[in-house]
Amino acid sequence: MLRFELKKILGSAGGKIAALLLAAAVALSCWMCVSDVCWVNDQGDEEIGFAAISKLRSAQKQWAGVLDTPRLEEIIRENQRLCATPEAQSKDYNQNDIAYGWKQGIRPVLNMMNYAYSRGFQEYDWYCNESVTPNQAGDFYPNRTKLMKAWLLDETGSAQYLFNENEKNYLIEQYETLETPFYIDYTQGWEELLYNSPFVIMMAALILGYMSSGIFANEYRWRADPVFFSTRHGRDKAVWAKIGAGFWMVTVLYWASVLIYSLVTLGLLGFDGGQCPVQIALWKSFYHLKFWQAWVLTVVGGYIGCLFFAFLTMWVSAKTRSAVFASTVPFLLMFVPNFLDNLNNDTISRLLGLFPDMLLQIYQKLRYFYVYDLGFCVKGALDILPALYIVLTAALVPLMYCQFRKRPIK
Amino acid sequence: MELTITNLTKEFSGTRAVDSVNETLTRGVYGLLGVNGAGKTTLMRMLTTLLHPSSGSITWDGEDIFAMEGRFRSILGYLPQEFGFYPNFTVEEYLQYIASIKGLRPAVAKQRVKELLHQVGLSKARSKKMKNLSGGMKRRAGIAQAMLNDPKLLILDEPTAGLDPNERIRFRNLISELAEDRIVLLSTHIVSDVEYIAGKIFLMKDGRIAVSGTAPELTAAMPERVWVCQVSKARIDAYLKALKVSNVKTTPEGAELRIVSAEQPTDDAVQVVPTLEDVFLCYFGQRGGEADAAV
Ligand SMILES: Nc1ncnc2c1ncn2[C@@H]1O[C@H](COP(=O)(O)OP(=O)(O)OP(=O)(O)O)[C@@H](O)[C@H]1O
Ligand SMILES: [Mg+2]
User: Fold this and answer.
1) Where are chain A's structural domains?
2) For the whole model, what pTM was predicted?
């Protein structure tokens, strides 16, 4: 039965086109990752491609290691030296680009310094790192917590109304307990992989959602329902086979897409740096995650999200009997939160942290302060979401089963 | 093997599509004859458990068919009026799929599909996509589908609709062939479809079984008589409007009309032996079936 159900979905022209689209989305995102990485050469010109990747990699590899105070002092001195060169001081942009090129090895650290030595938590100054002196090196990690606390506890600031005491304490604790000093390395592969992951996962959710929309509804569209429901298993096993087909289709196509995307991207850009904390790229994130852990969270969350999208679509299609109507569900789930966010209502915006679209873009959301006081403890949205949506997804299974099998024929 | 229908009624927002039907069916072929909207499909949908009755009951060997759930469906074969299928499946795949949801074991299913493909004459077309079949071939695939589980109760809703005369004859023969040792209920609005193959015929009108019996019983019990008379060309229209005319045969002088009427319509009218067509006309006030049905 399962085999035939899968054939019903994938055998149609729509199913084939959808699968091809998904493959195209994977290929496109691999390409986006690779083409994002550029190397500025000694002439100040940008290069992209595999040679550029390997040059950037070796430049950043030179600084790989524990980023402690002596190493920071070293990097600050190096930065000062490079900032003092005629090329960096020049009024000619091309000369500046050449100086920029020299800094590529320490660029990730300079980016973090822009946050660490910023005037305020919510401010960012691209040139901030240039004015940092070696004797400030010891402030690097403490500043992260200090600036956050100042923002969080500011009596006149907006954060006052956003969090209650428990939530504030939780955020401060998360900041204080983050393991320092960081271990740094070339992390471009993981960063690109994760940065572009929402695109792949959201495309998968839309496409797989579309493909799921017909599993129940096409039975009506093709007018095959009277025969289906009047067979021995038409109201039990055959309905399970449909749900199974949805599950396996999402599972196989999702993991194939995500694993191909990940392996190709990391294969081309390098697996290095999986052990580094995500704060290298997402300085303000309060989650304690290494890059590889962020990847696991992102892809597992994405899987749960895709499954939820697909099952919700199937349930709606069983209820409305319309594949067309049901296939709008994934779009609505994805775009309504954006719309609600634009309403600029604090309560709504905070609740958005629990919407299913979050699961499709976990890495993007790691830097947001979605925290919830559950009464007995405080948790970040991404600690709650996977469990929450596993439960909701599982709850949809009996719902759609009953919905479809009980449906009287017109 | 006994299907008992008791006081079966189905209402759709006030109108009674099926109205207090009482019948008992045992082994044999039954024809359900009625014009459009008579309630044939509604009755059949209830018999296949797809539709719940507003009141009344249906039992199989004394057990309520809705309570029997899967056990009832496993002895049921159904060809719906609007027979839908999966366009991208080949005939063989389609039958294998239906066999699987009918709970046939794969080895049995394979054998059964092969037999039925042969029996309905689709062996050569087995690898064709369902969407590429002709109307007649689709119907045959539909019959094969209904027969997969060797049903004790075979329900065919207008299986001959839209078929050409040759296909229609083949179909009738096929159904006679398949009728052994089961109950076959066949709906149609074409008299000739059931005239020879059905043991018992139900004439359905406005949701009720107006009259039932074998073809000879029905003709014998006809409340009106059948006449043949000659009329001039000029008067044909007047006759057609005023009387139930079951046949018009043009002749050099005008036409020979076959009329169903309690009274002798003209002085020269001769009484003849009624056919089932005449019975149909008598009850429904209109001719049974399509022009191409008279084969
Ligand atoms: N789902 C429904 N909702 C409302 N009315 C319905 C429904 N199904 C059938 N009817 C009505 O019930 C009556 C009987 O319809 P049914 O389809 O059973 O007739 P039928 O004898 O099969 O006709 P046909 O020869 O056209 O197939 C019709 O008047 C029809 O409009
Ligand atoms: Mg009908």
Assistant:
1) 2-35+187-405, 65-184
2) 0.91
